[in-house]
């Protein structure tokens, strides 16, 4: 990611500064920035892959040139890398820690401290790999998340020069070996994107082929002659391959894997086509505004994401307005330019410190970051810095069911190992909660009810897996089929279906799946209840409450209005109502009467947040639903047997539709 004049390889010649490479960097960094700010570039994340190919090409050009001239030194290579990367990165980390102390709530500040430690140890990609997943904190709360790609490059810079040096000393041709390594890495990436996608995304072994692609070109480009006209055409084709995915890919595109080939191959073609001679493509990429952005691309990459995170953290909701997203882009150029002008350039031009001196100073700086990160992490985000009311709302992040740890696996479901919420020795009614993460978060209410009424309780919850038969991916179908087998074996008194219905009840096929699920349960003479969806809020509730308290606003106005929630869930509620009519005997549980007041869905009660994000209830929020489940169980105990095919449609005053009694086998 250098923007200065560098020596390079090519028949013993030195390659002067190539402005078109900076133009290429500009396209890459703008793609990443536009992607992160959601400015109509859904595949802009491929800009990182463009950077990988560029880095592989430039670094290998430098190393191979110096090896050929007999002037290569590992110490000097690492000195250049430290000067180039380390100062700006450490300044960014330090600034984020300071801003985090002022702006972040304890849980997010604690994670920032841990990620700062990981970055100081050159392992940010490992940290974010291990902390990624469905239940991880949102990306918008992690100011150093983008450092994963920097860690990949740093690890490459540590290992790859050693490989080239060993090959050179043994007089082995590196080109074929680099190509072979790239093929192996790519093959692992192809497998990994399917079976271990998080590791494939974050780790060097499955990203190495992208860097190796650029390295291979640096080693072989002198042996790839082609006349000017077809070469120019291939260059433009490469630009198209590089840019098109930025607009066509989305977050649903399996990546990297095969999808990373077009942008990486395109970058390779562009670099090769512009290596020598004038061309229209080279003139385009050398356009001064592009080159200017390319020169500060490293600092812009470092700073744009913290600007996005800290602005989003407090001052925007789940969906930032376009002007705010555009403002993030514009504002990011300020600290990026300052970083380039007063950090990057001075340290790159500093020639007085030798390897030992530079390494010592870098170790001191890393040590300071390590200690600061450890203090932040060990103190759980320094909650003492916040007023009591704000700290109370921040406790929502710990007052929650640990969803990831509590997920029921497909294998456990197939073995019938469903967790017990409460177990009695006496014969009596029993209840099963079946659904996605929302079933898990309401389980404290069911557990409390079971203890109070001496009812057996069980739970079958799996993230992003609605309680619908013959629905979803293969593993989701296997899982739900296993839960149904458990129902057939154990025959609980009632099964309560709980899911984020608005996301899954969209089509006639989805409705048919719900009907089939209900009837399959009823075929076992087991009663069925469907719990409607809790309100989805406009933004993360702990932050919204803290912000309201900070500015003296009424926290009672933080939650969405009941009529807004009704509009949002109208489609799914209509489907649930139709299913109730199609399958007589279904009880419909409405949580909103228990979670609302004065026309608003409650966000807090008695100084405690009822959500720990924008849709999942805290334990405090879930326990407000205990009377709803108690009413359901009591209705089972006292309801008379209904005539066949006839459902009672009256509701009690708190949102539980009455349920006809059927005898258990």
TrEMBL record:
GO biological process, one term: lipopolysaccharide biosynthetic process
UniProt keyword annotations, A-Z: Acyltransferase, Membrane, Transferase, Transmembrane, Transmembrane helix
Residues that span the membrane, as ranges: 50-73, 85-105, 145-165, 177-196, 255-273, 285-303, 323-343, 355-376
InterPro entries, sorted: Acyl_transf_3_dom, Acyltransferase_3, SGNH
Single Gene Ontology MF annotation: acyltransferase activity, transferring groups other than amino-acyl groups
Span of domain Acyltransferase: 19-340
Coiled coil as UniProt keyword: no
Start and end residues of each SGNH domain: 427-630
Region (Disordered): 643-665
Record bears the keyword Membrane: yes
Record GO cellular component, one term: membrane
Protein name per its UniProtKB record: Acyltransferase 3
